[in-house]
Amino acid sequence: MLSQLALSIKESPTLKLNETAALLRDKGEPVIHLGGGEPKSRAPIDAIIGCASLLNTGEVRYTPADGIPALKKAVIRYTEEHYDRSVLPENVIVSSGAKQSIMVALHAILDPHDEVIFPAPYWVSYPEMVRLAGGVPVVVTAGDGSFQPTFDEIAAAVGSSTKAIILNSPNNPSGVVYTDDFVRQVVEFCEKRGIWLLMDDTYNRLVYDGRSPTNCYAFTPEDVERSKVVVINCVSKMYAMTGFRIGWAVGNRDLVKAMSNIQSQQTSGPAAPSQWAAIGALNGVQHSVSALRATLENNRNVLVARLRAIPGVKVTAPGGTFYTFPDFSAYEKKSHVLAAMLLDKVRVVTVPGKEFGMEGHLRISFCGTLKEITEGVQRIQWALDPNAPNELFLGGRRLLRDGL
């Protein structure tokens, strides 16, 4: 008999879709994956050299539970450069991905039934991660239907059981970059009320239109030991290093020590080759980040223009990440039904908006190739828009809207 906790936790829908897409491709199906969350570009050469250098020694050993000193030093330099904040090694924990950093932070701060607040739409894993840590997820949806609640809406959700707030900006799945004023208000509120604030900055260097990401540290005490803010980041997205599984958190030393103790019992230290790859990425030439950002911005422009050409589809141009979150409710209000239909009918993978806390939407990624983006949207329009051309070629098959 499985535990009640195990039975209550849902499978990650994004990982399940990746598996489904891979199985269909193995069968020769012409699948276009517009639901993915990893860039197509290669990992930086400095990362590959850093990893290979360790592998060539043949001495791949255990690492400290909270990360090797050289990577902590690189994270400290990164924090100084991008957040204008000086921290010490005791303020840094390196984990097997940003997801583990968030998970051990939640384990470190939550007692049973403590509440964690986050805005909708939210990353699919937040509710389940909070539950795994014994907490209660509290979702705040903007009253105006937008992708960013007001500060007053966040504050109204805070109660005696509130232990933490999670903000993810740029936001997965909407791509919305929260305003500086909103972040400032939430940071100052958390500092004043003694509430932990987990800033998930996974996409903070993938921001477009010449805009700079919001620096949450600009609104915190200069002494990190007096702050309730925890900043989480990783090499996965900005360096296209999803498979290396390296993330980190920066916070006050008491919290980081507790997180390190928990991580030491969960997994021990992150894999040594991956840590040396992360050092290479952080310390090496940064051209790959700017090149990726430029490519993604162009992809975004193409995707948004093509989605807006579908009658009834509402699209907010994302200011960051590599996701759009268009509203398809004019065609189908149940996002699971719509996503299943698109996969079955035209072999396009999307992620249902319900998984992110907002029905009627689909998450559509633009981190693939322009060919995948344009053909994928063409297939979606053929499946939905009765005024689209009646004929579609799908992997060599000629489809008509009224049948084969």
Measure the end-to-end span.
47 Å
* Overall geometric form: globular
Uncertain parts:
none
Q: What is the percentage of strand-forming residues?
A: 5-15%
Give the CATH topology of the largest domain. Answer: Aspartate Aminotransferase, domain 2
Protein architecture, described:
With 404 residues, this protein is an alpha/beta fold. The chain has 2 domains: 4-42 and 287-400, Alpha-Beta Complex (Aspartate Aminotransferase, domain 1), CATH 3.90.1150; 45-283, Aspartate Aminotransferase, domain 2, CATH 3.40.640. It contains 13 helices and 14 strands. The chain has helices spanning 4-8, 13-26, 45-57, 69-83, 98-109, 126-132, 151-157, 180-193, 253-266, 272-283, 287-308, 335-346, 370-384, and strands at 32-33, 92-95, 115-119, 136-140, 162-168, 196-200, 229-234, 247-250, 323-324, 348-349, 351-352, 362-365, 391-394, 397-400. Strands 2-8-7-6-5-3-4 form a 7-stranded mixed beta sheet, sandwiched between helices. A 3-stranded antiparallel beta sheet has the order 9-12-11. Helix 4 runs parallel beside helix 10 (272-283) and helix 11 runs parallel beside helix 13 (370-384). The longest helix has 22 residues, at 287-308.
What descriptive keywords fit this protein?
three-stranded antiparallel sheet, 404 residues, alpha/beta, 40% helix, 14 strands, seven-stranded mixed sheet, 14% strand, 2 domains, Aspartate Aminotransferase, domain 1, Aspartate Aminotransferase, domain 2
